[in-house]
Amino acid sequence: MKFPELPAVLVSLLLTVLLTPEPAVGLPATQTGYISVPLTSVHDKRDPDVHPDILHQRHVNRGLTRYARLSGRAEPSPLELLTKMKNRLDSLHPDIRKRYNHEGIEESISHLMSINSIFPGAPVPNQAHVSDEGAGGYSPSLLAVAVMHTVTEAKQPEFPSTMGLDIQGNELGYMGHFLLGTPPKTFRLLMDTGSADLWVGGEDCTAQGGGGCGKHQFLGPKSSSTYNQTDTIWAIRYGSGAVLGHLVYDRFEVAGLVLEKFFFGVARNETIQFTPDRIPFDGIAGTARSMISRQRTKTFVEALYEAGLIKDGIASYKIPRVTTMGVQSDGELTLGAMNPANYDPATLVTLSNISPIGFWEVFLQDVKVGGKSIGFTSRNVILDTGTTLFLAPKDDVALLHRDIPGAIYNGHAWTVPCTTTAVITLNFGGKEFPIDPRDLAFIPLDTRDLKGNCASAITEVVLHSGQDHWLLGDVFLKNVYFSTNIRTNQVSIARLPGRP
C-alpha cells in the first residue's frame, strides 16, 4: 500500500513535537514453549585521534539524557551537554592535546550540536567493556576492539528457543537477528530493555540532512509481498538519536517463532546516529513494557506470549563480554524461560518491578565497596541494556569512588586505575551481586599506557530533586543473568555460573 509523501514541514514538526520524552522480570520457567535468540555485540568505529576523555564524555552525555528520560526527569538541554563536552575538552593537558587531532574533538562537539539542534537528546548503543584477558591492566584486545569497526558474532546457542547476541564494538551494544517480510530478510536489531518499540529502516528512508540511510537492510513493498503500511505515523527519540516513520504489519520471525501479522515501525527518517555504514544494526528491538510504546503497539515478547508461542512472558539476557578478537560471543536472549546453564540457582532472586511508567526498575537494598557497606539503603535502579555506563547522583558516585584506591575526581569525571582490583557489590533481595573490577575501567586516558588511569565506568548526574534513581547499564548487567516477565511484572537476577 503506497501513501503520499509527508511534506518537509510536517516531518520537521513531527520530529520536534512527537519526540517529547516519555518515561519507558522474569521468573524461571520449566515449560517447553520457549524460544531463545542469540545475542551478539557490535563494535563501533572510533577515531584514534579523538582523546579517550572525549569518547568517555560522549557516553556520559548519552547516559545523562537516557537517565533523565527513564527516571521521569527533565532532560539536559543541548547547551548543558555541549558545555560538559567543552569542559572535558578544556581539561586536557596541552601536552596531551598536541598528540590528538583537535579537529576530531571539535567535530564531536559539532556532531553533538547538530543532533540536539533537531532532536533535544538522542540513542547510540552503549556499554563499558573489559576483556577477560586483561588482569594486569586494560586488555590490548579490548583497546583494539574499542577503536575498530568490528562486530563480534554470536555462536549458535544450544539451548532451545535461544537467539545469540552479537557484540557491537567494545561492548557498546548487543544485537539479535530477526526475519521480516516475504520472502524473509534478516535484520540485525539492537536489543534495548529501555524502550518498547521495534523498528527497521524503510525502502524510502532518508537520512538527517538528506541522502539515503546507509548500507543497511530495508523493508518495504518492493522487497516484501506481505508488507502492509498503515496511516499511523510514529516517532521516537533515544539517548542519542531519533527516527520517524509509519506503522506497518508484516510477517515476523525470531528463532523459529512466526507471527504472520505483527505490527512494528518502518522508519522514513533517521538521524545520523543510525545511518552511517559503520553502524552494524538495522533497527532497534525494545523489550520494556508496552505502556511506554511510542508506536502504541505490543512488544514482540508480548505478541509472542499472547499468541501462545511462548509459555511465559519472559525475556532472559546473558550479556556477553569481548574476550579476544575473533572469538565468538556467548551472549544469548532466551524467550519464554531462563536457561539453567546460564545462572547459579542458589543466587536467584525475583523482584517486583516498581517502575510506574513501564521500565524495568527494582529496589536496591545495600552497596558495598571492598566488602564495606556504604549505607545506600533507599535507591531505585533501572536495568537498561541500552546504556553503557553506570549512572547515579553526584554525591552517590563520590561515595562509591571514595573507597576505590587511586580513584581521582578531576572536576568533570572520575578516573580509576586501569589495574584496579576494587569490587563493588550490589544487594538485591538479600543476595549480593559483585561487579568485576575490570568493568570499572571504561578506557585508558593514555592509550599507550594500559596500566595507567582509566575513565571510570561509573559517572555522575546532577539532579535538581531527589537522590533516588540509579541507571545500571551494561557495566553491571555483564555480571549477572537477568530476566524480565511482562506477565508477572517482575525481574529475576542471578549470578553467572562459577562466579564467586
From TrEMBL:
GO molecular function, one term: aspartic-type endopeptidase activity
Xref: InterPro entries: Aspartic_peptidase_A1, Aspartic_peptidase_AS, Pepsin-like_dom, PEPTIDASE_A1, Peptidase_aspartic_dom_sf
Domain Peptidase A1 stretches: 174-494
Entry keyword Hydrolase: yes
A GO biological process held by the record: proteolysis
Family: Belongs to the peptidase A1 family.
PANTHER family: BETA-SITE APP-CLEAVING ENZYME, ISOFORM A-RELATED, ENDOPEPTIDASE (CTSD), PUTATIVE (AFU_ORTHOLOGUE AFUA_4G07040)-RELATED
Name assigned to this protein: Peptidase A1 domain-containing protein
Source organism: Pleurotus ostreatus
